[in-house]
Input
Amino acid sequence: MKRAAIYARYSTDLQNERSVEDQVALCRAYAEREKLQIVATFDDRARSGGSMLGRDGLIQMLAQANSGAFDVIVVEALDRLSRDMADLATIHKQLKFKGIELRAVHDGRADTVLIGLRGLVGQLFREDGAKKVRRGMQGVVREGRHAGGKPYGYRTSTMRGRLEIDPVQAAVVRRILTEYADGRPPREIAGDLNREGIAPPRGRTWNASTINGSGQRGNGIVRNEIYIGRIVWGKVRMDTNPETGRRISRPADGSEVMTADAPELRLVDDALWQRVQAINEAKAALKSHQKRRPPHLLSGLLRCGCCGSGMSVHDRDKTGKTRVRCSAVRESGVCTNRRIIYLPAIERAVVDGMREQLRDPRYIEIYVRRYNSERQRLASTAVRNRASLEARLAERQREFDRVMNAYVKGFITEAEAEQQIPELRRERDRIAAELAAAGEDPKVLTLHPGAINDYLRQVDELAATLADHAHEGMDKLTQMFRSLVHSVTVYPNGPREGFEVEVKGRLAELVGGHAFPTGRFSGVNVVAEEGFEPPTQGL
Output
């Protein structure tokens, strides 16, 4: 008698647990009729057939198939093995190579034609089922019922699919939206709620992200339109990653979004809501480095010239002037630079020094010349190494395929696969990017005098503002200035001999590149360095 293994599966925890036992009983009756000896039984409970990943029963069965533990695999129907055409074909190909028959109770022996037909039907059935579920959810929304999870501020009603206002949480929502509209940052709002012990929607603490959400996904308390009595469904869709088998959420196409009025769920009036959305729109227009307002002109940009650590506020003198020092001295005491320097003095030195460099195009011309020369050299090297890059890319792709195949065959665990696959993918994509860039012509940077003059004018305004200790208009000037600067390194001189600062930054808007020529400024004296500084990609 031929040795046989039985495999059974059902899809979700909403189905009957007895489904597996029923499938096994049906397969045993088939095996008895066909004179097959059952030697093993495998199953996956509440597992989708859309992917092979995460199905321990299937992986164990394929692993034992490699060792020749049985001659036949019996399933109730081929869609129990997989509802994906590619996966079903792969399983059949592997079993056929090992000389193992695949039999379905309702279809008999599986051949290439049957695998193709059942694979296509199974995948279409799965995709059609997803569409029907989505259509059903859209019908729920059209009826004015809530189709998603329970949002903060509401509780489930006794009527199926209906929500009702939770008075306690609704008061918190109104408070959050009011404070946000008045200009309070989400971090401060979250901090107050945590200190007062108010329970968050989920987890243990409130976070800025809980309040702010994502503009692309339309979530977060300040973006949830249910608070003005409008149910919105379909802002995200769930897709299965074919490499990991995990479902991930992605922003959906706007045409898939459905809305329905639910005035009984309104918590705030339109006037407050419009103020909140105006703030969201203003933030969306800002660049990433502009979204956080720095407390000082050079906040987060200062570096110690002795150890390279950041410099932070130390204290303020009797007149209220801010003083800074190396943070490594305060935190660990490992730096020898114990100088305490007035921050306004550093700001004036940096602004005056940058103004002098921008007035003399020779400094920028030196940078552009060296930058273009380096880009030409790198491009030539990349072209020469193209064959090497192609070989490395092919090798990484083979390694990636080997790991995937080892996981499918059960040679490595899911945890091992999840550890190796992302790193291999990143390395493969990095080499592919190098290969794509190898054939590109080097980008030549050019000067834009008009832009330089515009920045000169604004730097002059900033210098005048600092000199007058004024604050009106500082936000705009500060954002402009920080868009040029990458870092400011402070070098202390001897006792009572002042200091020097080295500025590294960006000339993206002036020359189309990513870096600013290095210069040292002490007061208004400039000592420019002509060494090439590689492009810097961000703060």
